[in-house]
Structure formats: C-alpha cells, structure tokens
Amino acid sequence: MTSSSMELIARADRTGSWQFLLDAIERLSLGRRMEDVVQVVRDHARIVAGADGVCFVLREGDRCHYVEENAIGPLWKGRKFPMSACISGWAMLNRATAVVPDIYADPRIPHDAYRPTFVQSLVMVPVRRQDPLGAIGIYWSFRHTPDEDRILRIESLARATATALENVGLYASLQAELDHAREQAAQMQRLVNEINHRVKNTLAVVQGICMHSLRGAQSLEGFAESFTGRILGLSRVHDLLNERTWGGVELRELVEHVVENGGTAAAGRLQADGAAVSLPPKAAIALAMALQELAANAHAHGAWSVPDGKVQLTWRTGPAAKPDGAASERLELLWREQDGPQVRAPARRGFGTRLLSGLADQLGGEAALDYPAEGLRYRFSMPLGASGAD
Questions:
Q1: What residue ranges of the chain are covered by domains with CATH 3.30.565.10?
Q2: Predicted confidence (pLDDT) at residue 212 exceeds the cutoff of 70
Q3: In this predicted model, what pLDDT tens digit does every residue of 124-167 receive, in sequence order?
Q4: Staple 213 to which of 133, 227, 317, 387, CB 3.0 to 4.6 Å?
C-alpha cells in the first residue's frame, strides 16, 4: 500500500470525511448543469471514500460512458463500454452496489480492460436505484474490502448525485418552458403590434374612401352606394389575406376574388391572363381597390354597361434596373375595355381617377389612365420586392 493511499484512507476514517460528504451534498444541491454535478463528484468522491481513484459514469442507452475521473493514474475517461461488459453496467442493471475486494478474482470484471491500470479493488455504486442514471466507481491500488461506514458514505454521495441529476433535468425543463413562455409573449407582442399597424392602415384607407366618396356623391343615396361598394371590395381582399395568414397572394387569385366574385361582371366578359405573381399584403390591398374601382366603373359607365362589352386584363413580369444599377423585377399590368360605349375623358378628376393614379405613389410605381374612344385603358407598373410592393 502506498503512503498516499494510506493518507487517503486515514482522512476518510476521520470524522472530517463526513464533513467533506456534507460539503459535497451541499454543492450538488446548487448544481444547475450536468457539468456542475460531474465536477463535484470528481473533486469530492475520492476523499469521501479514501480511494486512489474515482470515475463518474453516465448511462447512454445500452452503453456506459466514463465521462470523468480523478485518480493516481489514467483510467477510462471518454470511453464507452456495453453495459453487459463492465462492472458499472452490472451495478446499473442489477440496481445494486458492487463490492470487489480483488478484481482478478471476480468474473464480473473485464480483466483485459483493467490490466493497464493501477486498480486492484473497487466499489461501484449505481446513481439512483430505480432506473439508474449512471454510476460512481471507487478504486484502490491494493486489495481492499471497505467497511460498512465507508460504503454508506459512497452510497450517500451517489443518492445525492441522483437527486442533483434529476434537479438538473427539472431545471433544464423549467428553463425551456420559461424560454418558450418568453418567446410566446414576444410573439404575442409582435402580433399585437402588427394588428395595430394593420388597423391603423385600414382605418386610414376607410377614412380616405369615405371622404372621397362623399365629395363625389350627388346625394346621400349615391354616397351610401359608392361607399358601401368600395368597403365591400376592401373587405373581400381582407378575407383573402386572412385565409393566407397575411402572406403572399397570387395576382390571378386576387382578380378572381375581387372582380369576378364581386358581382360586377357577367361570366365570360373578363379575359384575364398573366404570369404567376405573388403580392405582399400592401400591394394586394392597393391593387384590389384599383380593380374594384375599375370593375365598378366598367359596370356603371364602361364596357360592362352594355351586353357585348368585354374587358381584357393582362400582366407580365420582367427585369428592371434600380437607381443603384442593381437588377430587379417589375410588374406591368394593363386593363383594356372594348366593345362598350364610346369613351370620353371626364371633365373633372373623381375619387376613382385619383385612386387609380395614386396607386403608383403607394407602391413606388407608375400609372396612367387613357380614354381612347374604343375603351378605357389603365396601365400600371411597379417594382416587385422589398423596395416597392412590400
């Protein structure tokens, strides 16, 4: 027996070893991470047991992972062994403490794994008897049978370690729940802010519709009719955006939803054709109002006011250069009426004319209304992407 081994045993035999155990238990109670628990076991178990070495083993499925050690010579730190092929696995599978006074006289010990080490005797204690989480190995460099008092100290440390590991899991679970709650609260706040933003924008749009409809109305009944029609058009596009959780809306779907489903055109009298284009909410609302206005005008005064009148709505996308020279994509749209009444330019700009012209300002694009005799033309173009339609 070496002098260092004798000193460790002497220290463990004195009442100070119990004090050291209490210190270890207190430190384990404060651990919040797996690393904290491993460090306490590494630093305290050897003195608590009066041993030449200790290993801390964690169960990983059907394998034993030797995660840490503190010993007079190298053991198996970082290695993994099948539970059926090592004494730590035996202790966990049998949920019992293994006391081995002579490792080479015990068939449970894989002798080849121990020959390169100093170990001659050991105690292996499972960490948590029911459904063990791991094990603590205590090793001596000589044949040795520890007394009951020493085994009691080692098992007490293992039980405290089990509680600490359970607390680590509970703390991690609680922390995850708190993080999730914080993220939900932040997400809710973002949602409230987004709703506030949308409500303010919608109220501003409604206010604008109300004011312009009032200015252009010749009577209260006329105001009610034009205002109600425009609000219904706005409502339809909001319904569509809600269905898409305020994500992108296809332009073709917007046309069908606002114009064809709006009751403003007879079947087959709108010919719509164009490439697939996804519009963000701001662009979708603005274009929906423009299409609603064009459809209402066509129904009241334009191509759809006569049986044979038709409307062709076409659009396309193409490359365009930004002011900084970078490439971008652009949407070009044309509303063309034909076979309707002869068209004359209006004597004054009404709400519809101002809305159609002002659409470009909202989306960073260009718009033009033309009044050839054969039918109204509305040309509109805008950049696609964050700089424009968003």
A1: 217-384
A2: no
A3: 999 888 888 889 899 999 998 998 888 888 888 888 888 888 88
A4: 227
Where in the chain is CATH 3.30.450.40?
3-176
Kindly state the tokens that stand for 225: 């009719």
Right CATH for 217-384 from 3.40.50.720, 3.30.565.10, 3.40.50.12370, 3.40.50.2000: 3.30.565.10
Q: Report whether 292 contacts 263 (CB < 8 A).
A: no
Q: How many CA atoms lie within 13 A of 359 on its CB side?
A: 30
**Which residue matches tokens 């909410």?**
281
SS (H, E, C) the chain: CCHHHHHHHHHHHCCHHHHHHHHHHHHHHHCCCHHHHHHHHHHHHHHHHCCCEEEEEEEECCEEEEEEEEECCCCCCCCEEEHHHCHHHHHHHHCCCEEECCHHHCCCCCHHHHCCCCCCEEEEEEECCCCCCEEEEEEECCCCCCCHHHHHHHHHHHHHHHHHHHHHHHHHHHHHHHHHHHHHHHHHHHHHHHHHHHHHHHHHHHHHHHHHHHHHCCCHHHHHHHHHHHHHHHHHHHHHHHHCCCCCEEHHHHHHHHHHCCCCCCCCCEEEEECCCEECHHHHHHHHHHHHHHHHHHHHCCHHHCCCCEEEEEEEEEEEECCCCCEEEEEEEEEEEECCCCCCCCCCCCHHHHHHHHHHHHHCCEEEEECCCCCCEEEEEEEECCCCCC
Q: Rounded to whole angstroms, how far apart are CA atoms 210 and 201?
A: 14
Q: Could you tell me if 280 and 339 are in contact, meaning their C-beta atoms sit under 8 angstroms apart?
A: no
**For tokens 């009426």, what's the residue?**
337
Q: How confident is the model at residue 293 (pLDDT cuts 50, 70, 90)?
A: confident
Residue 1 has pLDDT above 50, yes or no: no
CATH superfamily of 3-176: GAF domain (3.30.450.40)
CA–CA separation, 280 vs 306, rounded Å? 35
Structure tokens, 76:
């198996």
Q: Is the pLDDT of residue 365 over 60?
A: yes
Mean pLDDT of 160-175: 80
